[in-house]
Amino acid sequence: MHLGVIDVPLSVLDLAPVAAGTTVGAALRHTTELARRTEELGYHRFWVAEHHNMPAIASSAPAVLLAHLGAATSTIRLGSGGVMLPNHAPLVVAEQFGTLEALHPGRIDLGIGRAPGTDQVTALALRRTMQGLSAEGFPQELADLVNYFTGEQPGPIVATPGRGDMPAVWLLGSSGFSAQLAGLLGLPFSFAHHFSAQHTLPALALYRQHFRPSRWLAEPYAMVAVNAVCAETDERAEWLAGPSALSFLRLRSGRPEPLVSPDEAAAYPYTEVEREFVLSRREGQALGSPETVRRQLTELLARTGADELMLTTLVYDVTDRVRSYELIAEQVAGGLRRAV
Prior knowledge:
Blueprint: E1 5-7, E2 10-14, H1 24-41, E3 45-48, H2 62-72, E4 77-84, H3 90-103, E5 108-113, H4 120-127, H5 138-150, E6 168-173, H6 176-185, E7 189-191, H7 200-210, E8 222-230, H8 234-252, H9 262-267, H10 272-280, E9 286-288, H11 290-304, E10 308-312, H12 318-331, E11 337-339
Parallel strand pairs: 2-3, 2-10, 3-4, 4-5, 5-6, 6-7, 7-8, 8-9, 8-10
Antiparallel strand pairs: 1-11
Helix pairs in contact: 1-2, 1-12, 2-3, 3-5, 6-7
């Protein structure tokens, strides 16, 4: 039985995209500019994602970038979407995010992912050993990480910073494994709808089915990450989304490159198979004018029952990126509610 409706918070996932012909420094400055502006617009969180060996993405060191963003903002929550735990020793992650929490208490989210976020050769370069590259050890590594923050299982190592400075821990997922684990541990869960739309509903069902109340959550809390490009018209939004579609195609083809301009993307000679791939990826995206995006996000909320939506906007020019978030905050956000 529905007792009423509540407003759904909107948050931001940014990859510090590197546009062709620009620099990594420019990409990081643009991400900082976006964090400041989305804070002004009232977005709830600003997360950055760990990726490696990808020329179009500059957010390979989330903890370093988040420290900079923390100094550039004052109220918006900041976090990782996520840190890929198989790439790192849990002690290092505890020290990094314990430092962030100590510097910016109450503002830090530690989103943890199970995938390496890169290819196996790069993952091996990060870990320097095959040990730990398998996902099988993930639950134990997660338990070790949490223990460094809480100190509930005493041991010879004290994470400093870390113990006593615990950020909000989230599990991220694009399939069912992390959904079940998040539920069993009573942690908030964020699902990557933006690149795994066909698995969204089954994963959320598993999360809610397996949820056990914990010291962190009394009830399940699910956030859904979705691609969103909003412009004054549907046609302009489609045009702005072209570089992201082409970049994803090239990534999946083993040819990652920086984001090209919308004109270059529009001129790309897609084969029939490539065009079908790009169109299939459109499922579940929020793409168009404010009216269109409102309808698409409302439908997504109705299907998923998400407690929060996290928008990721991968476009060539930072001005268009900022404008998309402005339009959504000013003309879409107020109409997004879900039944409770």
